[in-house]
Amino acid sequence: MQGYEAVVVGLGATGSAAVYQLAQAGVRVLGIDRLAPPHTYGSSHGDTRITRLAIGEGDVYVPFVRRSHELWREIEVDSGAGLLHQVGGVVISPVAGGAAMHGSDDFFSATVDIARRHGVDHEVLDAGQLADRFPQFGVGAEHAGYFEPDAGFVMAEAAVRAQLDLAVRHGAQLRRDERVLDVLPSGDGVVVRTDRGRYGAGTAVLAAGPWLPELIDPDLGGLFTVYRQVVNWFAGDLADGSFEPDRCPVFIWQFGPGEEDVCYGFPAIDGPGGGVKVGTEHYGSPVTPDTVRREVLPSEVEQTYHRCVAGRLPALRAAAVRSVSCLYTVTPDFGFVVDRHPLHHGVIVASPCSGHGFKHSAAVGESIAQLVTTGTSTLDLSPFALGRLTSPAGGSGSGGRR
Ligand SMILES: Cc1cc2nc3c(=O)[nH]c(=O)nc-3n(C[C@H](O)[C@H](O)[C@H](O)COP(=O)(O)OP(=O)(O)OC[C@H]3O[C@@H](n4cnc5c(N)ncnc54)[C@H](O)[C@@H]3O)c2cc1C
Q1: CA–CA gap between residue 265 and residue 239 (Å, rounded)
Q2: Mean pLDDT of 327-336
Q3: pLDDT at residue 393 above 50?
Q4: What pLDDT, on a 0 to 100 scale, did the predictor assign at position 392?
Q5: Which CATH number does 89-149+225-330 carry?
Q6: How much distance in Å is there from the Cα of 196 to the middle of ligand 1?
Q7: CATH number listed for the domain at residues 2-45+156-222+332-390
């Protein structure tokens, strides 16, 4: 049995960052993935992810996105990949506020408050200012806007690929198309058993995204619910360049009070023929990654167009150039879990998803590496402790939001 200081299970946004940071720190590390990342079956595909510095999901996340931006710039230099595009970002919301997102009851107000508290450069715009500044959005008088010039997007698959390449350059071993069956405590560490072998390690990092529930004990697995999401690249009359990255920010548009009353989108990064990527959020029926329907039906494209796009993005048509489904792994309070397993010290459970994890993933990977090498991390991981969800006051079976 081969021995490592650390084994990272799952090499999506989280695992690729962790394996890279561990290798860079000189740790003898093995990364294993059941598929060949970057792939289209987990949570880290679809070209782009929004990043923003004022994190309406909570103050605790701000240091992670700030550090991630620094790390992506370093990774860009080391890998030659273009990853972080700070084209600006706008949150559009009903003036009265009170629209929920990712567990925040009033995401717009929380975003503005957090920008103020953390000194994030921003402007609050009324409907007229929004319409003047961003004519590609069909805003009504009932909307207000938050604009952040340093927000933008990260190239998702490119970031995973760059970190995996750099990990190998720093001495990591990667095993693709190998499935981890279980991780068992052994002495001071763990044994990772796969469909092809067994590996001993001091620490195993479980970064299995939507497959996490099947890798950990059912009690903990029950804290993570997986939901299918759909994104479409809508065709449109884009020849005027109003959706080009130099004129169009990333956007989050809240049009009602509920968690699902939202869409978000990106500039047309592939030119007028590539369409405009628009995503929605669904928390209806839980799914599993092995049984979920992957293809997107024409009726889903049509529904999204009529519910989210029509009237709001007048240049777009009810036809998708491309559509993909993707998976959110959601905790009861929409927060991350990055913590040691309560019973097995050699296992770190890493689920920074709940639909908003990519922007923080580079720094989460660094924090995991620090946890492995020093037992603690520079950035505060305590808000992501499992105990908040498993204690009597937590979300597990005790009235958490979801
Ligand atoms: C549609 C969509 C839009 C999003 N938009 C944003 C956004 O705009 N901004 C933002 O910040 N975040 C966003 N997110 C969230 C973000 O993308 C996720 O937080 C992040 O990608 C999670 O990555 P992960 O590495 O935890 O999971 P994954 O990418 O799913 O990686 C898990 C990996 O584990 C592997 N694996 C699973 N089981 C095993 C096993 N038994 N053995 C070996 N390997 C295994 C899988 O093959 C996979 O490669 C979005 C997510 C989705 C789905």
Answers
A1: 18
A2: 97
A3: yes
A4: 64
A5: 3.30.9.10
A6: 24
A7: 3.50.50.60
